[in-house]
Amino acid sequence: MSHLKAGGFSETDSEAAVGSRILEEELGLSPSSLTMVFHSETLTVDESLFAKQVDAALTDITGMPQIHEVITFFNSHNPRMVSADRHTTYASIGMNLDLNEARAIMPEFIGNLHYDSLDQVQMMVTGQPAVYYDMESISKSDLAKAEMYAFPLCLIVLVLAFGTLVSAGLPLAIGGISLVITLGIISLLSRMTDMSMYVMNIIYML
């Protein structure tokens, strides 16, 4: 179901969507972006160790072809990128991908982050692609857990209702076949029109 789209909360022809496309085409705004938050309880951004750890954590990100730009306080010297107590800063990661493509490469992106280079600095990833990736992962995990408990409980209820295992298994078999057919139809439709990734939740719920 890789053709399912992230989000599903906005219309592609809405004023906001059209405005975003104009910014991308006319002003070179990145189609999607991530924000890396760096915080230290002991170091401030003025200390060289803070800068070294941030640079080391992001060193492989700059070489990814999907990354358009990496802006940090240390290469931009923008004072707005630093908190008042100077213990927190962030990096803006511009991507030359749309939201769905950016969501799909999140495992690769996270795999290229060097968490092991951080000693006294915490690093957190946020932004729309990261949020949608986490939501998709959590949704899949929750669906798997729900199925693990729902099917045995349904079987017990059906056995009590019909009296025999064979009779109880028939509705489950029909439901399983219907589920496979529905997933096949959704897979085909998602190649022809935009469909939200949350359609999977609705299918399994029904």
Summarize the structure in words.
This protein is α+β, with helices and mostly antiparallel strands and 206 residues long. The protein contains 8 helices and 4 strands, in the order αβαβαβααβααα. A 4-stranded antiparallel sheet has the order 2-3-1-4. The longest helix is centred in the C-terminal third of the chain and has 35 residues. The protein starts with 14 loop residues before the first helix and ends with a helix.
Describe the structure concisely:
The protein has helices at residues 15-27, 48-58, 73-76, 99-104, 106-111, 128-162, 165-190, 199-205, and strands at 32-39, 67-71, 88-95, 122-126. With 206 residues, the chain is α+β, with helices and mostly antiparallel strands.
Number of helices: 8
Strand proportion: 5-15%
Main β sheet profile: 4 strands, antiparallel
Distance between the termini: 18 Å
Residue share in helix: 40-55%
Oligomer: single chain
Q: Whole-number average pLDDT?
A: 83
Task: Sum up the structure in keywords.
206 residues; 8 helices; 4 strands
